[in-house]
Design brief:
The structure is a homodimer of 211-residue chains. By secondary structure, chain A is an all-alpha fold. Chain A folds into 2 domains: 58 residues, Homeodomain-like (Arc Repressor Mutant, subunit A), CATH 1.10.10; 129 residues, Tetracycline Repressor, domain 2. Chains A and B meet through helix 6, helix 7, helix 8 and helix 9 of A and helix 6, helix 7, helix 8 and helix 9 of B. Chain A binds a DNA duplex (30 and 30 nucleotides) through helix 3.
Chain lengths: 211, 211
DNA sequence: GCGCATATTGAACAGGCGTTCAGGATACGC
DNA sequence: GCGTATCCTGAACGCCTGTTCAATATGCGC
């Protein structure tokens, strides 16, 4: 019969579709509001299949998060490498964090992840890895800038911590769309702080200068 | 009978006990893990009474949050007024945020609140009000410092935003107890940033200087 | 073509939990 | 003292939702 047409057609593709659906639903409803039925509906499959592939709702959530993590980072690393100097790279990171690639939706997801990480080990691992990668990238860019003579931080390790934390803090405002906080403002505030922290003198050749 | 001893004894006191119990449970289990039964148990009353007073679980949560908000702010404002100069007050805020008064537990609660604020209007209102109050206090201290000649920010409005955001960002690390992040480190990192932002010259008379 | 491992479905199950409710105790005005 | 409004309880109800399961389809090695 044509009714149950696609069975066992491309199981790997279905798995992936479910993971994508999972993060889509979490983005829309949050962790607390995500049901197996929602995921199945979004993925266009049955509830049973979600459990078949991932064992439980928690399993599906974990798988979705891990996928998101890798996907995001690969994309980021790829684009970062395309920029040519440390100043440009730093600028790129500022813009990426502020909203390029629909980060607003992502920041909301981040807030959810932080809260969940308080109790769920999987979430904690994902956010920790993500955070470490991001900070490592920041540190590399800064070291590179120091080597090239563009930056002169008084303490680069601390600057990394502060600049990364500032992004998270600004992101809270952005995600909760506090009046007055926009992606432009985010970039502007962060960039000025970076200038102050790192003693940047030469402006970024690519990308418009702040403001 | 002595069995059902305390009925209608002090309804207002029971209400308050329930609100306190509510935030205690949220602190321990998070919003997602908080059940009416937990609150009742913690408060030493019946499940029915929680609903009688607050109408629903959501109502109890909202009431608890509002109570927490006022309580925290009153306490803060009281202590802040006791400090004598702008530098001392700024220092006090740094230390309060970093962990005085068991803020670590509170920061965890904040993360939960942020995530919940994405969807729940009550939570959003509470966190917005809290945030506004905190930033207003920061701004007042900074203005005071400018007037007294202790601070010389290049743009005080922006400094307020950045310093407040930095606290939130550092708080994420602290709440998720990232290795290496402690209350001391929190204060140190934030204070250095404040020095940089505000051009503080004179050290705080009270409280040890950073590090 | 046959049989077996893998996918997939939809329905049924069962536990958890918010809410409702009928009933009682207490304080308080009269 | 009596009646009434308020406070409080514990049990029962019923829905929501994660998980289980038997049945079926599909692809694949032989």
């Amino acid at each position: 019969m044509a009714r149950a047409a696609l069975a066992a057609k491309a199981p790997e593709e279905r798995r992936e579709r479910i993971m994508l659906a999972t993060i889509a639903v979490v983005r829309e409803r949050g962790f607390a509001g995500t049901r197996v039925a929602d995921i199945a509906l979004e993925a266009g499959t049955s509830q049973g299949l979600v459990l078949y592939h991932f064992g439980s709702l928690a399993g599906a959530l974990a798988a979705g998060l891990t996928m998101l993590e890798d996907e995001f980072y690969d994309d980021f690393a790829h684009h970062l490498a395309a920029e040519d100097g440390p100043v440009e790279r730093l600028r790129f990171m500022a813009e990426l964090a502020a909203g390029r690639g629909a980060a607003v939706g992502n920041w909301a997801l981040w807030l959810e992840l932080w809260a969940r990480a308080l109790r769920d080990p999987d979430a904690r691992a994902v956010r920790e890895s993500q955070d470490r990668r991001w900070r490592a990238a920041l540190r590399r860019v800064i070291d590179e800038g120091v080597a090239a003579g563009s930056f002169s931080p008084s303490n680069s390790a601390k600057s990394v911590l502060r600049l990364a934390a500032l992004m998270d803090g600004l992101a809270v405002q952005l995600a909760l769309n506090e009046p007055g906080m926009t992606t432009r403002k985010f970039t502007e505030l962060w960039w000025e702080s970076a200038v102050l922290e790192l003693g940047i003198t030469e402006p970024a050749k690519r990308g418009k200068s702040p403001r």
